[in-house]
Structures are given as structure tokens and as C-alpha cells.
Amino acid sequence: MKNADQESGSHPTAGLDDVVHQRTRLGLLAVLYETREADFGYLKSLLELTDGNLGRHLEVLALQGLVLIKKGYQGKRPRTWVQITRHGRAAFTAEMSTLKELVRRFEVSSNSDSQ
Questions:
Q1: Given Cys at both, which of 4, 50, 60, 61 links 66, Cβ 3.0 to 4.6 Å?
Q2: C-alpha triplet 16, 49, 27: angle, nearest 5°
Q3: What is the pLDDT of residues 47-64, one digit of tens each?
């Protein structure tokens, strides 16, 4: 049995953002959504990433305007801080809404299968 979304040809997966949805970038945005700002070392450790891998994903997010990267010093040590932007918060919120809709549809489908 088809619902209205299926009849119109749309599906929630069409709303997934390829930049945001990638696992590492989704993790970065999730952490930054909660903390608003974090340093490179914290993100690297928490998400279990290499320097190069983290740097590349942050570069992709920064190019899309989803994060702001700030370099500076803490004492004599160079530090890199990453901050989620307003656009990044909106993109993460939209991604989470799409994922919620996918889960809702899954649950509806699972419940109808068990009946």
C-alpha cells in the first residue's frame, strides 16, 4: 500500500545532505551543535580520527560555511578551534529532521509488518 509520499515519488532520503550526512561530518556537527565550539584535539580524540582525516572533513564543512575554523595560541602552543555557524546549526537540524522522518516511516512499516 502506497502513502502520499510514495505516490508523489518523494522519499525522506532525498532530503539527506551529502555533505552533512557523511558519518564523520555528521559526528562533527553533532558535537559542535552540543558544544558550539571545540578544539581540534578534543574532536580528534572524541571521534577517534587522525589529524589528516579530521582536517580534511573540517575543510569540507568550512568550505560549505557550516563551521568556522580559528587558529591561535594558548600560551606558546598553537591551537585550532572549530565553531559551528548558524548555517551549520540549520543544516544539522534539517538532517536530524530527515532522519527522524526515516525512523518514523520505518516504525510505521515495522508495525504494519508485524500485524
A1: 61
A2: 30
A3: 999 999 999 999 999 999
